[in-house]
Write a structure and sequence with these properties.
Elements (H helix, E strand, L loop, with lengths): L3 H4 L11 H7 L6 H10 L25 H33 L57 H164 L5 H189 L7 H19 L1
Helix pairs in contact: 2-4, 3-4, 4-6, 5-6, 6-7
């Protein structure tokens, strides 16, 4: 039986709150009949109070709750609210049984509540009529007559016989109650053993399931790891092949580029060689031309010196001649000067023609060199442009190949991310389902434990009531025995007093026979004897 702090006794200064008021307003029960119904059914009044969803969350400092924790809290709240409604209906039905004068329900009625049923907590029909269980006596109507303080009815022997028969029936009923209590204890032990066995089997099944799931996850992880390793080996092999191909292509391209560079260098060297040869030829031609011009100038200078020498000689001859030949000399001199001028002019004209020819040849050679250089430069430019165009095409192809590979890699990464996201969502859903199933299993275990606790409280209440009935019956039997013993002692005392009175009367009669007393005083003697007997009886009492 629970203490007064748990069930409460209700203060007379407050209004009583029944189970109906509790179901309507959510207030705590303090009505005597409702509290008695709670004690009978093994339900704590605190279990009938409403709770919010927040009370089913694990509280913490600045705690953020996940969606699974919130759903688990909602599930626990729904389970608690469903059990609370069933307990309210059970207490209400037991209160009606109390109002109808019925005795306590058997403890096994705590297991008759089926989740999901509405109306009566024990199934269909009237809640008062349905609380009869096989193996338990039916409810009896309680009598309002107290069992104590009934000594006034123990006056005669017939009542004693009735009390003896009633005492025998009480003893038999006590034996039956004790047997029922023993059977209830045995059933409770069997129920606890069955629950423990089921819990052990459930734990073993859960452990086997968890072990199988772990093995399955390990197998899946190993298979996935093997697939990833095979895939990685294939990718590494493909990457190595691609790397080898790229290396060979790069080597071929490098060889081609080296060959092209070597050819360009050879062409440049040949062009430079040709330019050098042309330059050397031009320099040699220029030097030769300058040498020819110098030689011609030296010849002209030598001729001029010779002519000047001749002129000097002629002048000397002319000076040495007489004036007679002065006119002839002047004429010859004029002729000579004219001839010299003509020769000089002819020499200068020939020299100018030679210089012009050399200049024309140099100009033509320079033009040819420039033309060759221009053609070479154009060829180099064309080759460079073609090489640049080829390099651009190759670069574009390489960029296209890189872009295609990057696109393929991005698609593979996107698919892998999508697959990982899908696997993560699936794992979260499985974890959520597992957690919710675990919560449901915990709620089922908690419901079984609560049923066991209710049965234990109901059995404690039944044992307390049984002990009260036994103590009351024992007190009643003791009172009957004491009264019977008192009656027996009274009868024995009366018989003893009667015998003593007869003996005294006989002694008195014998004394009066032997003496001379008068028989008229016999009444006085009997009166004195009766007074003495009364005094003796009062003193003995």
């Amino acid at each position: 039986m629970q203490g007064p702090m748990e069930y409460g006794l209700g203060s007379p200064s407050r209004q009583n709150v029944t189970v109906i008021d509790c179901a309507a307003t959510g207030a705590r029960i303090n009505s005597p009949r409702s509290l008695e119904a709670c004690r009978r059914m093994g339900i704590k009044p605190s279990e009938l109070l409403t709770k919010t969803v927040v009370e089913f969350l694990d509280h913490g400092v600045n705690r953020k709750y996940s969606l699974v924790e919130k759903e688990a809290a909602v599930l626990r709240h729904e389970h608690f609210e469903q059990l609370r409604q069933q307990k309210l209906e059970t207490v209400r039905a037991e209160r009606e049984a109390i109002l109808s004068g019925l005795g306590p329900a058997p403890p096994s009625t705590a297991l008759l509540s089926v989740p999901g049923t509405t109306g009566s907590p024990t199934g269909e029909g009237s809640p008062i009529q349905q609380q009869t269980v096989a193996g338990f006596p039916p409810r009896r109507t309680q009598s309002a007559r107290p069992w104590m303080n009934s000594t006034e009815t123990l006056g005669d022997s017939t009542l004693l016989q009735l009390e003896e028969r009633r005492l025998a029936r009480i003893k038999l009923r006590q034996q039956k109650d004790i047997q029922n209590a023993i059977e209830m204890e045995a059933k409770l032990v069997r129920l606890q053993q069955e629950n423990a066995r089921r819990a052990a089997e459930e734990a073993k099944r859960q452990e086997d399931q968890h072990r199988k799931m772990r093995q399955r996850r390990m197998q899946l992880a190993a298979a996935k790891h093997e697939k990833e390793l095979a895939k990685k080996r294939d990718e590494d092999k493909e990457a190595l092949e691609r790397k080898t191909r790229r290396r060979s292509e790069a080597e071929r391209e490098r060889v081609l580029v080296e060959e092209e560079k070597e050819k360009a260098r050879q062409r440049a060297l040949e062009a430079a060689q040709r330019d050098l040869e042309r330059q050397q030829n031009a320099d040699a031609w220029r030097i030769q031309t300058e040498e020819l011009l110098r030689q011609q100038e030296e010849v002209v200078a030598a001729n001029r010196r010779r002519m000047l020498e001749k002129e000097r000689q002629v002048a000397v001859k002319i000076e040495a001649a007489n004036k007679r030949r002065h006119q002839e000399a002047l004429e010859r001199r004029e002729k000579a000067n004219a001839r010299i001028q003509n020769v000089t002019y002819q020499n200068e004209l020939a020299l100018a023609r030679k210089k012009q020819e050399v200049t024309d040849k140099q100009t033509a050679a320079a033009e040819r060199g420039k033309e060759i250089q221009r053609k070479t430069a154009n060829e180099l430019k064309e080759r460079a442009a073609k090489s640049k165009q080829d390099e651009s095409v190759r670069q574009k192809r390489l960029e296209a190949a890189h872009a295609l590979r990057e696109k393929h890699v991005s698609e593979l990464l996107l698919k892998r991310d999508q697959l990982e996201a899908k696997m993560e969502d699936t794992q979260q859903e499985r974890e959520k389902a597992r957690l919710l199933a675990q919560v449901e299993h915990q709620l089922g275990v908690s419901r079984k434990e609560q049923n066991v606790e209710r049965i234990q409280r109901m059995e404690a209440y039944a044992r307390d009531q049984l002990m009260r009935r036994i103590s009351s019956a024992d007190a009643r039997s003791r009172a009957v025995k004491e009264r019977k013993q008192a009656l027996l002692q009274t009868r024995q005392q009366v018989a003893t007093e009667a015998m003593i009175r007869r003996h005294r009367l006989a002694d008195a009669v014998e004394k009066m026979r032997t003496t001379s007393a008068k028989w008229e005083k016999i009444e006085e003697t009997l009166y004195v004897l009766s007074i003495a007997m009364i005094l003796m009886r009062s003193s003995s009492r």
